[in-house]
Amino acid sequence: MLIGLSAAVFVLFNGRIAGISGILGGLLEWPKGDIAWRVAFLAGLIGAPLVYGAVLTLPEVRIDADFPTLIIAGLLVGVGTRYGSGCTSGHGVCGLSRMSPRSLVATVAFMLAGFATVFVVRHLIA
């Protein structure tokens, strides 16, 4: 609920979509007068777990993949984000709430790709 609420508040007060890839990608372009809010948003994404971890115990993170696999997966996600014109946060949270047909197609594609990947990795390769 908090993610949806924050995305709604973000679009109401800033007129912008809270898609992480778009916010980060905008920083790489260095648009004039459009940097401070992007840096603040990303600092909040990084800082919030750090503050939480300082107050409470963070859950254990367990990744069942080696480093090369994680690099390849990250690159594939980056390529998919560019081809899909946005990431899961932009399409899945913000786009679907605006009833965007493009976001519906993108979210279905993300989900199907995830299901297929898990099936292949867990049942066909391993």
UniProtKB/TrEMBL annotation:
PANTHER family: INNER MEMBRANE PROTEIN YEDE, SULPHUR TRANSPORT DOMAIN-CONTAINING PROTEIN. It comes from the Bacteria. InterPro entries: Sulf_transp_TsuA/YedE (IPR007272). GO terms for cellular component: plasma membrane. Belongs to the TsuA/YedE (TC 9.B.102) family. The chain crosses the membrane at residues 35-55, 67-84, 104-125. It is a multi-pass membrane protein. Its main location: membrane. The keyword Nucleotide-binding does not apply. Keywords: Cell inner membrane, Cell membrane, Membrane, Transmembrane, Transmembrane helix, Transport. It comes from Janthinobacterium lividum. It is found in: Cell inner membrane. This is YeeE/YedE. The keyword Flavoprotein does not apply.
